[in-house]
Amino acid sequence: VTTALDLGRVETPAAVVDRDRMEANARRVVAYCAEHGLHWRPHIKTHKSRRIARLQLDLGARGLTVATPHEAEVMSSVTDDLLLAYPPVGEARLERVLGLPGSVDLKVALDSTAVLAPLAAGARAAGRSVGVLVEVDVGLRRVGVQGVDEAIRLAEAVAAADGVDYRGILFYAGHIRGTGPAEDEGIARLSGDVAAMRDGLAAAGLEPGIVSGGTTPTLWRSHEIEGLTEVRAGTCIFNDRDALAVGAAREQDLAYSVLATVVSTAVAGRAAVDAGSKALAKEPRGGRGTFGRLLDRPDVEVVALSEEHGMLDLEGTDWRPSVGDRVRIVPNHVCVSVNLQDRLLLEGADGDVEAVALEGRGRLSGAPEAGR
Ligand SMILES: Cc1ncc(COP(=O)(O)O)c(C=O)c1O
Question: What is the maximum span of the chain, computed from C-alpha positions, in angstroms?
Fold first, then answer.
């Protein structure tokens, strides 16, 4: 919906997306994947928006990745090719996942028979077949079967069960960040581990059709992971300070910022803005233990956060803002900042602004009392 939104007058804090940069980011990923025979299945947790998911698909993404039942429900109206990269544990979650439209080719990642058995039983009862990717731990130590033997055992159980369909493997190498010798080694080890996993499964007659991986920090090295078929990178649609810090994005790839207003300059050496932890999220990752930086003044950082106040450090700059001035802040981690917003304001190069809904936010569909 295009309305006469004026970023000079809109109430702050407000989340602003540079539309050209966002589209350029998407095009780059699609081109990279095409060059290397990979598919891009973006994780939509970053934007949670149908509008942006459609853009990704229109530009060449193959299906979408989601984490929550609500995201799955919302995105099922955008694509029939969905991957739930989260174990559907518990009746409430499972019921919603199995209640997705029958037209959806649903794939689910899991790492145990404790998750598999109710999923298969529920799928049979619902009269549908659910694709399963065996999730493998490649070093993050979060979820995932441990090693080839366990993967084979679980894949055999999937292949033997009715109601589910063995489709391949999935991993999330969130522990590999940055560039440098440690990352080179990490990627080489990952590639070796994935190849061994694939060979082991193939020898057992369980060759994975899908090998799903790929994060934003490792995005541009995905082709070094032997046998990978799809990349789930999501953050790359907007990028953030973390993506910049690990060398996965350049300044001109920063598409997201929080528009904020200076509300006080009373304290020497600082300026208070109206973007606090409820707009930026308090993630001291990346950077130097600070929470954000100005888009056009990288040396001006957010050094402290209250819920509705962000404190800019002016010690290292000659810039002296006045009360009422507007600034754009790049957060450390964009996905959690987006999750705090009511909408995104997509700004075109010609100055037009489009308000975009974040339909995938929250956990419930419909009225609160409908919550299962
Ligand atoms: C399972 C899974 N896949 C894909 C992604 C996307 O990775 P990134 O945020 O680095 O783009 C994430 C991010 O947390 C994830 O948890």
Answer: 70
118 phi, psi to nearest 5 deg = -65, -30
- For a ligand 1 pocket test, name from 40, 43, 47 the mutation site with the most ligand atoms within 8 angstroms of its C-beta: 43
Atom of ligand 1 nearest to the CA of 85: 1
Between the CA of 214 and the centroid of ligand 1 the distance, in Å, is 8
Rounded CA separation 163/121 (Å): 7
Q: Which two tokens stand for residue 56?
A: 């990704």
Distance 147 CA to ligand 1 centre (A): 21
Query: Which pLDDT tens digit goes with each residue over 148-197?
Result: 999 999 999 999 999 999 999 999 999 999 778 889 999 999 999 999 99
* Cβ of 43 below 6 Å from ligand 1: yes
pTM for this model (two decimals): 0.96
DSSP letters for 184-212: HHHHHHHHHHHHHHHHHHHHTT---SEEE
Query: Using N-to-C axis directions, what is the helix angle for 113-126 and 148-160, rounded to 10°?
Result: 20
**Range 365-370 contact pairs with CB under 8 angstroms and sequence separation of 24 or more:** 365/70, 365/73, 365/74
